């Protein structure tokens, strides 16, 4: 009897333990249930919170401005062009405030369009500079929209520019080419040349010629027509000139062609004949290069004019045994450059009895003149006062060779076929 009692007691304890374990399991499962499908206060709270958030989001969306701001360039962009690459536009609204500042906080002036839908800087940006842009717009219900952006402009290392002649608004002679010297070598010549347009009011065909990877000149087949207007458009902003090197210029240049003046220096006769619009206006005695230092032959273009200048033989290779210049004249009057290497046509006050009779210079063409460049009656002064940068001076019958076409602005020494062969387009 006692043995059976013990057995029943154990069975009861085991049954209670199993029931307790089962109940505990149910409680655990019930306590962890939060999937929104079950009942209980936890599920109800979650549903209410979710519904409240959805209602708040919906209310905020209804109150959001309809104005949609677009900014170019993209956020964090690098190598951004400095001319036309920065612009703000808005749809379904009007811009109310646009602020562009550099890294130092200095503002850049800009203008919102009259209709309020766009903005651009008034001036070109600086290279290698971080800019920050803050924009505010509003829709028809005066609800505001905001955008902010920062970007970095192209660095000098990753960009190129072209230094050109002649200057905008200048008046030049009929031989003046458009000459562009790039500050970095150009490998994508076709793209760069295609982004430059040179045209004339005369309707003359104008073609570019590459002398090397950094110099590009433009000219027509014959001299520019007198009294015509030449326009050059540089659309180089963003054009890749070499791997990783882009242009930054967006500029239009206009210059005027004057009367047609061409002067011919005959080294044998020691005379220069000046023609304007095909008519001889003056014949001037000259003294050209000596037999030991003859003047180049060929068509040369006046590229610079100086009322007075210093000429030191050491700068162009004419030195004595001590390394000093064979000549050093500090006040040469009425000097006009014909070549990069140092050929000038200029006044001469130190030569006596040589004009029209002897060739004695180191390669320049000399005209009788007065010390101080103050006598307008002298041939040197007359020629200076009646010449333009871009006028043509032709030298013939010299024992020297023809000047190279890239030695100065002297591409006229290439015939038209050879000139066009140097074009990349």
TrEMBL record:
Gene3D superfamilies: 2.60.40.3710, 2.60.40.3780, L,D-transpeptidase catalytic domain-like. Pathway: Cell wall biogenesis; peptidoglycan biosynthesis; Glycan biosynthesis. This is Lipoprotein-anchoring transpeptidase ErfK/SrfK. Keywords: Acyltransferase, Cell membrane, Cell shape, Cell wall biogenesis/degradation, Lipoprotein, Membrane, Palmitate, Peptidoglycan synthesis, Signal, Transferase. InterPro entries: Big_10, LD-transpeptidase, LD_TPept_cat_dom, Transpep_catalytic_dom. One of its GO terms (biological process) is regulation of cell shape. Pfam families: Big_10, YkuD. Residues 47-65 have a biased composition (Basic and acidic residues). The keyword Nucleotide-binding does not apply. One of its GO terms (cellular component) is extracellular region. PANTHER family: L,D-TRANSPEPTIDASE, L,D-TRANSPEPTIDASE YCIB-RELATED. The active site is at residues 346, 364. Residues 34-65 are annotated as: Disordered. It comes from the Bacteria. CDD domains: LDT_IgD_like_2, YkuD_like. Residues 261-396 form the L,D-TPase catalytic domain. GO terms for molecular function: acyltransferase activity; peptidoglycan L,D-transpeptidase activity.
